[in-house]
Specification:
By secondary structure, this protein is mainly alpha-helical. It has 6 helices and 4 strands, in the order E-E-H-E-H-H-E-H-H-H. Strands 1-2 form a two-stranded antiparallel ribbon. Strands 3-4 form a two-stranded antiparallel sheet. A hairpin with a 2-residue loop joins strand 1 and strand 2. It is globular, with a radius of gyration of 15 Å. The two termini are about 20 Å apart.
């Protein structure tokens, strides 16, 4: 019953999930997430976007982001077109992150090829969106679990 995703902010560790690990009744979480709010991106684990818009934007970039960050890249492309990504507190779901495909970060031991693919995609996102990552107005270090 802890928070996993309530949007994505960009910063020193690239795509960061604010409030990850917080409890739903944490006062800091409640202060900032009890209402709909904009973020740099949202996770595709619970993303809603119109088919026409998704098609117009070229969908997910599977050539550069087959393993990870395809959702973040998609949202940043929307942002570059003047659109935005929002999270609503009215939508809640249970998500068992990476349950079907495993964790990208710990896969270095079990599947080094996949792990290096993940690192390549992380570098691609950083290279493509360097300016947005450095200047995300949604970034706030206090939203990270200590």
């Amino acid at each position: 019953d802890s928070i996993q995703h309530v949007g994505v902010m960009l910063g020193p560790n690239l795509a960061i999930h604010p409030f990850s690990g917080f409890k739903q009744d944490d006062p800091l979480f409640m202060k900032h997430c009890a209402r709909s709010r904009e973020w740099a991106a949202v996770t595709a684990a619970c993303m809603l976007t119109g088919r026409e818009l998704f098609t117009k934007m070229g969908g997910f970039d599977e050539n550069h982001f087959a393993i990870a960050y395809n959702d973040v890249d998609y949202c940043l492309r929307l942002g570059a077109e003047g659109l935005s990504s929002w999270v609503t507190p009215d939508a809640t779901l249970y998500h068992y992150e990476s349950a079907s495909r495993g964790n990208d970060v710990v896969s270095w031991f079990t599947n080094p090829i996949r792990y290096y693919g993940f690192l390549r995609e992380k570098r691609a996102l950083r290279d493509r969106w360097k300016d947005m990552i450095a200047n995300d107005s949604h970034y706030d270090a206090s939203f990270l679990r200590k």
